[in-house]
């Protein structure tokens, strides 16, 4: 019995030491970003600190799940949607029945920056809301610029959904984890949906 109790305490201790920081949310997660010089100051155990971002194939199932939870129906993926008189673009997740969708911009800066949460389109960096590449019959790719996205297309930007890790799991409690990035993405989706219903 004594050994059994000790085993439970050991498992709980390991779980707590390897656990993530539950204080991280969409309003403060940039405060947890570590650049390479800060890595040494924080006393991370791993030798290599890596920053990564959630990719479109990881994000689509989350958006669909949140839309279903919110009661939306007629959800489609990679839907060609007319956004103005001249242009149509592929929207990764779109509800035909409710006529709105989520666009995920798949480009990120090398270093996460709080300003990315303020301007989620490509307006600041490219001068237009969105740019995508179209392949011509000749094989040449040309940029197609979308000056202004309609209100029924909600923009999520890969820039905002970053996470960090080292090869040592002990470090994760000090870093923004992939689970944290998912949590922030879900917060953003819920916020969009709440604002949509107002």
Describe it.
The protein is an alpha+beta fold. The chain contains six helices and eight strands. The strands form three sheets. The protein has a four-stranded mixed β-sheet. A two-stranded antiparallel ribbon has the order 1-8. A hairpin with a 4-residue loop joins strand 3 and strand 4. Helix 3 packs across helix 6. It is globular, with a radius of gyration of 20 Å.
Low-confidence stretches: 1-19
Q: Please list the strands of the largest sheet in the order they lie side by side.
A: 2-3-4-7
Helix content: 25-40%
How far the N terminus sits from the C terminus, by CA atoms, comes to: 58 Å
Enumerate how many helices there are, as a single number.
Answer: 6
Structural class: alpha+beta
Rg over CA atoms: 20 Å
User: Which percent band covers the strand fraction?
Assistant: 15-25%
**Biggest sheet features:** 4 strands, mixed
What is the succession of H and E elements? HHEHEEEHHEEEEH
Overall shape? globular
Q: Kindly report the average pLDDT value.
A: 86
Number of strands: 8
């Amino acid at each position: 019995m004594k050994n059994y109790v000790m085993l439970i305490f050991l498992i709980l201790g390991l779980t707590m030491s390897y656990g993530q920081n539950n204080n991280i949310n969409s309003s403060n997660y940039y405060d947890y970003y570590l650049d390479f010089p800060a890595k040494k100051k924080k006393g991370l155990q791993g030798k290599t600190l890596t920053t990564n971002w959630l990719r479109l194939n990881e994000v689509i199932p989350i958006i669909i799940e949140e839309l279903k939870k919110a009661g939306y129906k007629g959800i489609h993926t990679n839907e060609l949607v007319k956004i103005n008189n001249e242009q149509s673009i592929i929207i990764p997740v779109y509800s035909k029945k409710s006529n709105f969708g989520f666009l995920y911009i798949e480009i990120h800066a090398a270093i996460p920056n709080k300003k990315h949460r303020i301007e989620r389109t490509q307006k600041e960096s490219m001068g237009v809301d969105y740019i995508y590449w179209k392949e011509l019959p000749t094989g040449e790719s040309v940029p197609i610029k979308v000056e202004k996205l309609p209100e029924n297309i909600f923009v999520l930007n890969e820039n905002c959904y970053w996470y960090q890790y080292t090869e040592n799991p002990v470090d994760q409690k000090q870093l923004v984890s992939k689970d944290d990035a998912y949590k922030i993405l879900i917060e953003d989706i819920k916020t969009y949906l709440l604002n949509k219903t107002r």
